[in-house]
Automatic annotation (TrEMBL):
PROSITE patterns, per database record: AA_TRANSFER_CLASS_5
Protein purpose: Catalyzes the removal of elemental sulfur and selenium atoms from L-cysteine, L-cystine, L-selenocysteine, and L-selenocystine to produce L-alanine.
One example GO MF annotation: transaminase activity
EC numbers: 2.8.1.7
Family per record: Belongs to the class-V pyridoxal-phosphate-dependent aminotransferase family. Csd subfamily.
Recorded catalytic activity of this chain's protein: (sulfur carrier)-H + L-cysteine = (sulfur carrier)-SH + L-alanine
Lineage: Bacteria, Pseudomonadati, Bacteroidota, Flavobacteriia, Flavobacteriales
Record protein name field: Cysteine desulfurase
InterPro entries: Aminotrans_V_dom, Aminotrans_V_PyrdxlP_BS, Cys_dSase_SufS, Cysteine_dSase, PyrdxlP-dep_Trfase, PyrdxlP-dep_Trfase_major, PyrdxlP-dep_Trfase_small
Domain Aminotransferase class V: 24-392
PANTHER family, alphabetized: CYSTEINE DESULFURASE, CYSTEINE DESULFURASE 1, CHLOROPLASTIC
């Protein structure tokens, strides 16, 4: 059970006002808020441990290294990776996808096919298009239906021995659809294709077990799950990470360097060139601890209640249409009100202290599918309340009255 009033005490930012009104934060899919348990770890790091890692014999460096590697272990345990060296600490989801897409340049060729779902964020489209441009491979799209669900029969038809890679998000950022990734991974493996799952939107809502999913690559960002920005993780199966070449050259990722030849470090360091976001990595570990202490089952059932309530209340507004009505859906509502631009609704909501995202949500192909310029997106977290949803509904009514 979620004690939302107690949880809200963990988030200092929820006490602030915006435009003279208490902040109502419904832009959680863009970035989540940070609890004091994570903020304290950041302050503690810079107050007591700040040093470069994996390099110094001095105490500070060793302590910082231990904390950073401890965080990697927490992340490994959370996602149930078999080995800690299968967890590559990145700057976020985008970095993880680019690392893999770049590595596949030497593994795929003209005539090969890669499949992308129609529900992707630009981060999980553009790097693969660039890969196809480099290699001559062909990009094909798994289509969706009007509810925003992938059409599995079409997916099956697209899979063949030519398919080398499938990339799909676990949860769509624009519509909230939860994709049947376990089934999709099984189907891809039958034709010998590897699968990369973009977990940017799933990590705040559910706990993914990479071994149970048998996924080849799983990527996410800490800032979506109560951690800081600028840090994330790429999980890769050991055999795949060994096949991929390093992404960036520099310090930390080497074994031996001479002017004639460089040999590379083993996993995970082969993919971690340069000084990483040390504090961010440690705080990522703290965020994982924080969310597990609340419990993902509690989070999922509470957020589902919020989703159901908000859907019912918003649909009472005449002319309001929700995009994304999948059976399996998380606490994201994308909507428009007939005749009103989403940006205008977002602006009025902001005047009322309500933060939502408006626009194409970095998922233009989804907007093209629905033939709309964008939507208003309200995305809920476990620290939101039904009272806040009531304020959103009133806010949308006010906006409608003012703009129509
Ligand atoms: N989506 C949103 O408002 P980064 O920026 O690397 O942390 O995450 C990119 C990303 C990749 N995949 C999905 C499914 C995402 O939702 C995001 C980030 C935010 O929806 C900001 S654009």
């Amino acid at each position: 059970m979620i004690n939302v009033n107690k949880i809200r005490e963990d988030f200092p930012i929820l006490n602030r006002e915006v435009n003279g009104k208490p902040l109502i934060y419904f832009d959680n899919a863009a970035t989540s808020q940070t609890p004091k348990q994570v903020i304290d770890v950041i302050v503690d790091y810079y107050s007591n441990y700040n040093a470069n890692i994996h390099r110094g014999v001095h105490t500070l460096s060793q302590e910082a290294t231990d904390l950073y590697e401890e965080a990697r272990l927490k992340i490994q345990k959370h996602f149930n990776a078999k080995h800690s060296y299968e967890i590559i600490l990145t700057s976020g989801t985008t970095h993880g996808i680019n690392l893999v897409a770049n590595g596949f340049s030497s593994l795929i060729k003209k005539g090969d096919e890669v499949l992308v779902s129609a529900l992707e964020h630009h981060s999980n489209i553009v790097p693969w298009q660039m890969l196809c441009e480099r290699t001559g491979a062909t990009l094909k799209v798994i289509p969706m239906n009007d509810n925003g669900e992938l059409i599995m029969s079409e997916y099956e038809a697209l899979l063949s021995e030519k398919t080398k890679l499938v990339f799909v998000n676990h949860i769509s950022n624009a519509l909230g659809t939860i994709n049947p990734i376990k089934q999709m991974i099984e189907m891809a493996h039958k034709v010998g294709a590897a699968v990369l799952v973009d977990g940017a939107q799933s990590c705040p809502h559910l706990k993914s077990d990479v071994q149970e999913l048998d996924v080849d690559f799983y990527v996410t960002s800490a800032h979506k799950m109560c951690g800081p920005t600028g840090v994330g993780m790429l999980y890769g199966k050991e055999e795949w990470l060994n096949k991929l070449p390093p992404y960036q050259g520099g310090g930390e990722m080497i074994d031996q360097v001479t002017f004639e030849k460089t040999t590379y470090a083993g996993l995970p360091h082969k993919f971690e060139a340069g000084t990483p976001n040390i504090c961010g990595g440690i705080a990522f570990g703290a965020a994982v601890d924080y969310m597990n202490a609340i419990g993902f089952e509690n989070i999922a059932s509470y957020e589902h209640e919020l989703l159901e309530y908000a859907t019912q209340q918003l649909l009472k507004i005449e002319g309001l249409k929700i995009y994304g009505t999948a059976k399996e859906k998380t606490s994201v509502i994308s909507f428009n009100v007939e005749g009103i631009h989403p940006y205008d609704i977002g602006t009025i909501l902001d005047k009322l202290g309500i933060a939502v995202r408006t626009g194409h949500h970095c998922a233009q192909p989804i907007m093209d599918f629905f033939k709309i310029p964008g939507t208003v997106r309200a995305s809920f977290a476990f620290y939101n309340t039904k009272e806040e949803i009531d304020a959103l509904v009133e806010g949308v009514k006010t906006a409608k009255m003012m703009l129509s």
